[in-house]
C-alpha cells in the first residue's frame, strides 16, 4: 500500500516563479519531485508558470507590483527559484521583486531550518547531526528592509546616508508569537537574537514583546543572545538552540551561517509564511541566483526540493512532505560533496536521484527520517 492510497484527491493552485540564474534548473528538479509526489501521494497541483526576473524586467520594465502580483495573489502557494542578474543594477530585482512580494503578501515569517541531516557533510569538524537541529524565525517585512532612508550630497565627500530600521509592535508580535508556537511543538526553547545593548530602541520593543507573549506560553523556556555572540555559538554549539527568533537583517546574516553549518547554501531551504491566509506563502531555497554557474548543472537542487517539502506541509500534505524530506536526505547522504562537480552528478541527475529515492520511500523500503521534523513542527505551529 502506498502512503497516499487511503486519502482523497486534493488539488492546490501553485505559482511557479523560476526566475534567474540557477533558479530555473533547481526549480525544474523540484517540479520533477512534485510530479512524483503527486502520483505517489494522491494529490494534484494546477501550476501557473510566471515569467519574472532580469530578462522579463529588461524587456517589459515589470517588477512585482502590477500584473505579476495580480496573478500570484489568488494562488495557494508560490514556488520560487531565485532572482538577480548582472544585467540589472543590484537591488532593483531584490527590492522590487523579492522584498516587494514579502511585504505586499505579508509573508511575516521567514522560516529557515538549520538541521544537519544524518550522513550529510559539514565543514564544522566533529559536529554530529544530533547536535544540530534548530529553526531560525526571521522577521520578514520590517526592520532595515523597509527601504526607508535618504542621502544628501550623494557621491561627494560630504555625503550623509541615513538608513532606517522600522519595528512595529504588531509586526514583531506576530513573528514572536509564531516562534513560540513552533517552540511549543519542539524542544520548548526560544532564543531571542538581537543587539539590545546597542540598538536600544528596537531592542526594547523586541524584548518587551517577547516577555509579554511568553506569558501565553508558560511551557516554553526563553533566553537571549546578542547577534555577534550568535555567530560564535552557532557553529560550535548549535545544540544550545531550538527556535531562534530575530529581526530581518540579523536573520538574513545568521541564516547564511546556518546554511554553511548544515552543509552549504545548496541544501538550505526556507518558507516565507503569510500567517493569516490573506495572501499566498512563498517557498525558496536560500541560495541566490549564482549567475556564474547558471545552466552548468553545478547547482545542488536539494535546497529547492526541501523548500518544496515545506510548501507541501503548508498546503496540508505533511505525509508527502516528510517523504520528500526523507528522499532528499537519502541522496545527500550518498553524495561525496554537496556542490559543483563534487556532487558526482549534474543538477538534473541529483534531482532524478531524489525522484527515485522518493519512490523507494513510498514503497516503505526506506524508513521515514527520524527525529523532530521541521515538517511536523510547521504543521503543529499552524494548527495550534
Ligand atoms: C535572502 C536573500 C534576500 C534577502 C535578497 C536576495 C533580497 O539574501 O533571502 O536571504 O536579503 O532577504
Ligand atoms: Mg540572505
Protein described:
- This protein has twelve helices and twelve strands.
- The two termini are 31 Å apart.
- The protein is an alpha/beta fold and 384 residues long.
- The chain has helices at 23-41, 54-60, 67-73, 92-104, 169-184, 200-214, 227-236, 248-261, 302-315, 318-333, 347-362, 374-383; strands spanning 10-19, 43-49, 77-82, 109-115, 133-139, 149-152, 160-163, 189-194, 221-226, 243-246, 269-273, 281-285.
- The model has no long low-confidence stretch (mean pLDDT 95).
- Helix content is 41%, strand content 18%.
- The chain is globular.
- Strand 8, helix 6 (200-214) and strand 9 form a beta-alpha-beta unit.
- The strands form two sheets. Strands 2-1-3-12-11-4-5-10-8-9 form a ten-stranded mixed beta sheet, with helices on both faces. Strands 6-7 form a two-stranded antiparallel sheet.
- Magnesium ion binds next to helix 8.
- Residues 252, 256 line the site of magnesium ion.
Highlighted features:
two-stranded antiparallel ribbon; alpha/beta; 18% strand; binds 3-isopropylmalic acid; 41% helix; 384 residues; binds magnesium ion
Topology:
Layout: E1 10-19, H1 23-41, E2 43-49, H2 54-60, H3 67-73, E3 77-82, H4 92-104, E4 109-115, E5 133-139, E6 149-152, E7 160-163, H5 169-184, E8 189-194, H6 200-214, E9 221-226, H7 227-236, E10 243-246, H8 248-261, E11 269-273, E12 281-285, H9 302-315, H10 318-333, H11 347-362, H12 374-383
Parallel strand pairs: 1-2, 1-3, 3-12, 5-10, 8-9, 8-10
Antiparallel strand pairs: 4-5, 4-11, 6-7, 11-12
Helix pairs in contact: 1-9, 1-10, 1-11, 5-6, 5-12, 7-8, 9-10, 9-12, 10-11
The chain binds 3-isopropylmalic acid and magnesium ion.
Amino acid at each position: 500500500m502506498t502512503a497516499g492510497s487511503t486519502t482523497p484527491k486534493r488539488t492546490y493552485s501553485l505559482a511557479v516563479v523560476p526566475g534567474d540564474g540557477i533558479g530555473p534548473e533547481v526549480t525544474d528538479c523540484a517540479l520533477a519531485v512534485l510530479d512524483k509526489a503527486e502520483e505517489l501521494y494522491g494529490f494534484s497541483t494546477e501550476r501557473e508558470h510566471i515569467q519574472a526576473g532580469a530578462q522579463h524586467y529588461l524587456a517589459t520594465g515589470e517588477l512585482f507590483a502590477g500584473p505579476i502580483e495580480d496573478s500570484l495573489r489568488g494562488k495557494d502557494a508560490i514556488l520560487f527559484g531565485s532572482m538577480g542578474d548582472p544585467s540589472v543594477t543590484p537591488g532593483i530585482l531584490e527590492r522590487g521583486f523579492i522584498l516587494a512580494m514579502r511585504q505586499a503578501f505579508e509573508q511575516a515569517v521567514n522560516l529557515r531550518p538549520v538541521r544537519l541531516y544524518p550522513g550529510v557533510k559539514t565543514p564544522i569538524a566533529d559536529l554530529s547531526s544530533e547536535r544540530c537541529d534548530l529553526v531560525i524565525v526571521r522577521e520578514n517585512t520590517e526592520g532595515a528592509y523597509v527601504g526607508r532612508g535618504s542621502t544628501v550630497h550623494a557621491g561627494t565627500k560630504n555625503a550623509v546616508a541615513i538608513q532606517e530600521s522600522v519595528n512595529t509592535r504588531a509586526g514583531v508580535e506576530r513573528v514572536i508569537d509564531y516562534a513560540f508556537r513552533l517552540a511549543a511543538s519542539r524542544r520548548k526553547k526560544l532564543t531571542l537574537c538581537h543587539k539590545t545593548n546597542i540598538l536600544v530602541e528596537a531592542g526594547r520593543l523586541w524584548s518587551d514583546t517577547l516577555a509579554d507573549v511568553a506569558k501565553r506560553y508558560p511551557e516554553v523556556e526563553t533566553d537571549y543572545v546578542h547577534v555577534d555572540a550568535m555567530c560564535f555559538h552557532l557553529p560550535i554549539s548549535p545544540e544550545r538552540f531550538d527556535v531562534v527568533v530575530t529581526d530581518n537583517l540579523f536573520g538574513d546574516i545568521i541564516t547564511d551561517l546556518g546554511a554553511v553549518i548544515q552543509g552549504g547554501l545548496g541544501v538550505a531551504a526556507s518558507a516565507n509564511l503569510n500567517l493569516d491566509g490573506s495572501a499566498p506563502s512563498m517557498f525558496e531555497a536560500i541560495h541566490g541566483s549564482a549567475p556564474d554557474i547558471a545552466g552548468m548543472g553545478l547547482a545542488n537542487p536539494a535546497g529547492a526540493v526541501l523548500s518544496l517539502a515545506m510548501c507541501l506541509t503548508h498546503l496540508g500534505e505533511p505525509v508527502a512532505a516528510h517523504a520528500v524530506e526523507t528522499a532528499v536526505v537519502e541522496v545527500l547522504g550518498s553524495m561525496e560533496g554537496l556542490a559543483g562537480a563534487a556532487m558526482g552528478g549534474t543538477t538534473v541527475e541529483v534531482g532524478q536521484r531524489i525522484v527515485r529515492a522518493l519512490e523507494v520511500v513510498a514503497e516503505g523500503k526506506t524508513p521515514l527520517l527520524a527525529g523532530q521534523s521541521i515538517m511536523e513542527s510547521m504543521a503543529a505551529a499552524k494548527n495550534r
